[in-house]
Amino acid sequence: MPVAEFVNAAKLALSSDPTQAQARFRAHHDLTGRTEVTVKVGSGHRFTVDEPAALGGGDTAANPVEYALASLGSCQAISYRVWAAQLGVELDRVEVEIEGDIDLRGFFGVDDRIRPGFNAVRIRVRLIGPESAARYEELAAAVDAHCPVLDLFRNSVPVERELTPPH
Amino acid sequence: MPVAEFVNAAKLALSSDPTQAQARFRAHHDLTGRTEVTVKVGSGHRFTVDEPAALGGGDTAANPVEYALASLGSCQAISYRVWAAQLGVELDRVEVEIEGDIDLRGFFGVDDRIRPGFNAVRIRVRLIGPESAARYEELAAAVDAHCPVLDLFRNSVPVERELTPPH
Q1: B51 and A96: CB-CB below 8 Å?
Q2: Which ipTM value was assigned to this complex?
Q3: pLDDT digits 0-9 by tens, A65-96
């Protein structure tokens, strides 16, 4: 099914039955090495997370903050696909570069006034296709207004944390 | 090097020369399929992101919001390792479960009053080890105050987006 048809069918289904729109995503994590984590996501995919040697790990995989950037970059790329179809914008290629800055004194507790996470993130999007620059700017605005992971970066999310007592 | 020794050495280095604390992370993304994205992170690791069939993809890998949850869960797990060492808390095992809720009407633009990203996230941490419940609560509080990706979820991050004109 072409992407535009899929999007129209999805919009129709979600409008007529909003309970279908309530999606729940899950991930399970096991600290299996010094800093190595085995991840299983709800849909059946598995992968590894680790830290580089400079952060005390074995460098067997990307680290958590790199996965966070990849989550943002891939969400942007896929949102370009979906919103180009929705707006009827032709698009031959999408590349996204992300950079994020962290002051490591926050994480290690050297100075608790320094936030532990990213203090700045930059996204560079490169679109290739036959449309005008104005049309691609319009597409980019639609993507940024609807990209789930950009929303996560730009706005706060309510998070509850529960500790299961040790046995 | 034991984790506690690594952490002490890192804290000393970061305190004496704060320029060493400025870390920059990078990820590059190519939309290589219908919703398939090839990711290269700065440190040389590669992986794939895709959407499940229900979201129009080929389900070859976890999707962006699952990677976002995995980023949070793995960051929590590793922060338990690092902060247990820093606080001298013994810890035999760490498991983290994350659930996140999204109303898909936001992403598809069915209703622009609905945020496209997570509206709620729940973290369940299971610690196994010989310490008292109070000691593990103290550890969890230290982790939550210093976990970089929890900071990303709970607080807003300044994000700039630049569009390279098409050629």
Answers
A1: no
A2: 0.97
A3: 999 999 999 999 999 999 999 999 999 999 99
* Token pair of A132 as six digits: 């005008």
CB atoms within 10 A of CB A54: 12
In sequence order, what are the beta bridge partners of B94?
B127
CA A85 to chain centre: 20
Rounded distance, CA B55 to CA B52, Å?
Answer: 5
Task: Count Cα neighbours of B109 within 13 Å in the Cβ-side half-sphere.
Answer: 17
B105:A23 CB<8 A: no
Phi, psi dihedrals of residue B28, rounded to the nearest 5°: -120, 140
Whether residue A120 and residue B70 make contact (CB cut-off 8 A), yes or no, is: no
Q: Shortest CA distance to B161 belongs to which of A76, A122, A77?
A: A122
Tens digit of pLDDT for each residue in B24-75?
999 999 999 999 999 999 889 999 999 999 999 999 999 999 999 999 999 9
Burial (CB < 10 A; 0-12, 13-18, 19+), residue B50, is buried
- d(Cα A18, Cα A65) in Å, to the nearest integer? 33
CB B25 within 8 A of CB A69: yes
Q: What angle do CA B71, A28, A104 make, to 5 degrees?
A: 25
Angle, CA of A108, A30 and B67, to the nearest 5°: 80
Query: Rounded to two decimals, what is the model's pTM?
Result: 0.98
- Spatial strand order in the sheet of B159-164: B46-49, B37-41, B22-31, A93-103, A118-128, B159-164
Interface touch A117/B149, C-beta < 8 Å: yes
Q: For A164, which residue in chain B has the nearest alpha carbon?
A: B126
Positive or negative torsion for Cα B20, B76, A26, A47:
positive
End-to-end CA distance of chain A: 51
Kindly list the residues from chain B whose CB atom is less than 8 angstroms away from the CB atom of residue A29: 70, 73-74, 76-77, 95-98
